[in-house]
Write a structure and sequence with these properties.
α4 packs across α7 and α6 packs across α7. This protein is an alpha+beta fold and 307 residues long. The longest helix is centred in the middle third of the chain and has 22 residues. It is built from seven helices and 15 strands.
Length: 307
């Protein structure tokens, strides 16, 4: 399974999210603490800087190389500061059928679309589901699908639930679109008789909004004909954590988020805490969506429970 993070708030050097902390995202690609699986199938990122040229268009980076050895990524991370970041290291099951390509690197964001999405999870029998899902994807969006992942199909399906994916949407509209997307997937699974545990942890941003979904279809149901093949990701809900405060950085040799939630102007959502000190991190509830935006000049956080 993959690892991802989303950040919104005060300008932050990308190096302090990707490489420097005790459990930075790049470290999680080879040494995760909450899911014992190497994530070696690529790295992707979107990063927004409101002071950059064309600030609504993010910095974009994608590579299928191992991020821990990626000198270009490290050089950029030491230079770029951003107010919103969505970054993802991709993990796939060890198989000769796995497709490692730039088209399959997260986050997904079609040209001109506000919404960017990264996914941690795996939809069972996705190949069987695609023809039925296609009926719920707008034709002009369906033609943009370039990769083979279930993640991009979820992105195309979610974008199709919005009246105009090229415009900013409210929290209520985004929650409704997520609910509709999950309902469509649930209906297709029922049509095909799919009842195998399938995680759908989503990380969504527009550069001004953050949302993350912690969700699993048919949790606890898995094939038992070969117990050795049951991965730990099927035995537990995939992890998802949130923290907020006034400043994130290294303080007295310790990476942490300082300042309380009452005066927070910065928020971060991640598959697992980036720091050794986890006292300021909260676990996102199962079957919920956490939402944050910058109303009033600082992040406002809401929890929405999903059907």
């Amino acid at each position: 399974m993959c690892r991802a993070l989303a950040y919104l708030g005060q300008p932050v050097l990308l190096d302090t999210l990707l490489f420097q902390p005790d459990s930075a995202l790049i470290r999680q690609s080879y040494m995760p603490k909450m899911l014992h699986m190497l994530n070696l199938a690529g790295f992707g990122m979107r990063a927004w800087d409101r002071h950059s040229f064309d600030p609504e268009r993010p910095f974009s980076y994608a590579s299928t190389s191992l991020p821990v050895f990626d000198r270009n990524l490290k050089a950029l991370a030491e230079k770029i500061r951003a107010t919103c970041v969505l970054a993802h290291v991709r993990g796939v099951a060890y198989s000769t059928e796995a497709e490692i390509s730039l088209q399959n690197v997260h986050p997904f964001q079609y040209p001109g679309f506000k919404l960017a999405l990264a996914h941690n999870g795996d939809l069972a029998r996705m190949r069987d589901m695609k023809p039925l899902l296609l009926q719920h994807i707008k034709p002009d969006i369906a033609t943009r699908i370039a990769g083979t992942t279930d993640s991009e199909w979820i992105y195309a399906l979610l974008a199709s639930q919005l009246d105009d994916p090229m415009r900013q949407c409210s929290a209520d509209v985004l929650v409704r679109a997520v609910d509709q997307t999950l309902a469509i997937i649930r209906g297709v699974r029922a049509q095909l008789g799919i009842n195998v545990s399938s995680s759908v942890n989503l990380f969504i941003t527009t550069g001004e909004q953050l949302a993350a979904v912690r969700y699993c279809f048919d949790f606890g149901c898995y094939r038992t004909e070969d117990p050795a093949r049951v991965h730990e990701a099927n035995m537990n809900f995939l992890s998802l954590w949130y923290t907020s405060g006034r400043e994130y950085g290294c303080h007295d040799g310790e990476w942490k988020m300082t300042g309380g939630a009452d005066t927070a102007d910065t928020g971060m959502i991640a598959s697992e805490p980036l720091t050794r000190d986890t006292s300021t991190w909260l676990e996102v509830p199962e079957y919920s969506m956490i939402y944050a935006d910058t109303r009033g000049g600082r992040p406002s956080v809401e929890i929405h429970y999903l059907n």
